[in-house]
Fold this sequence. Notes:
Number of helices: 11
CATH topology of the largest domain: DHBP synthase
Oligomer: single chain
Largest sheet: 9 strands, mixed
Strand content: 15-25%
CATH architecture of the largest domain: Alpha-Beta Complex
Shape: globular
Amino acid sequence: MTARPGDIDSAAVDRAAVDRTAIDRAAGVLRGGGLVAFPTETVYGLGANAADGAAVTRVFQAKGRPPSHPLIVHLAGAEQLGGWVADVSAPARLLAERFWPGPLTLVLRRGGRVPLETTGGLETVAVRVPAHPVALALLAAFGGGIAAPSANRFGSVSPTTAAHVRAELGDAVDVVLDGGCCQVGVESTIVDATGEALSILRPGGVTREDLQAALGRPLAVPATSHIRVPGQHASHYAPRARVVLVEPDKVIAEAERAQESGRQVGVLLPPAFADAEVKAHAVVALPVSMPAYARELYAFLRELDQRGCDLIIASPPAEQGMGAAIANRLRRAAGPRPAV
């Protein structure tokens, strides 16, 4: 049987089997206006009651996220879309049937249940159904929509373990549900489905190729969009170390030049050069498989930070399949940082 995007390796979550007591407690925290960090197949989310504007405001405060940046509403199933969205086009319904539960977010017209705090003031809303047993159990127990961005400080590396969440957000989160390591490792693909002509606003866990195969037609990937969605900042998904991107065959030379100049250089070494000796502070040999690279990308960036690197040299992969999402995250990580 062919695996679907976002399918969960059951062995990977055996040790994080759904704890009903913890789930019920977390659902109660959400009903009371609190914040719950929970695992999805992509990254860990920082969740609040999507229908409670005051609770959603706490998410923005905990992350240091600008309130104009919309959040994704997570639902237990497509049958719950009523009230959260105003309408669903035929192409959007087709994609939901094919890829939900899974790492696909659809942007639709806002329904009456969604406060403007959740949408960043927009008349559109981003919705998805996650493919993780803990997330789905939480959604079922809560009985409503959960608004959740990634559970980290705004602009920094997204968390793929519960330990990442605790280290970064600490007491700002009321409950952290541990569901093991995320199996996709990068955020969901976001598709503008507000009209009949769909387009990709952010590459992610469902590839452009898979979406086009399901629709039977090409999908545009516009450079800009009038619809604001998560992950559009020039600098995003960024480690503490500065990230510099070069061509694959320039990675080693650029890393050694920077190391000789006194920098503490971390290297994301392309598979083609896996056997090369590199004079650098820390080297991570990348997997050949793009899904495996995506699964570990954020962990690699965190590791190089933890090892004391102040500069990371990397090369974006070819933008095919999951390579498009990885390249997007690396470009954002290398983007211009805001002045401090």
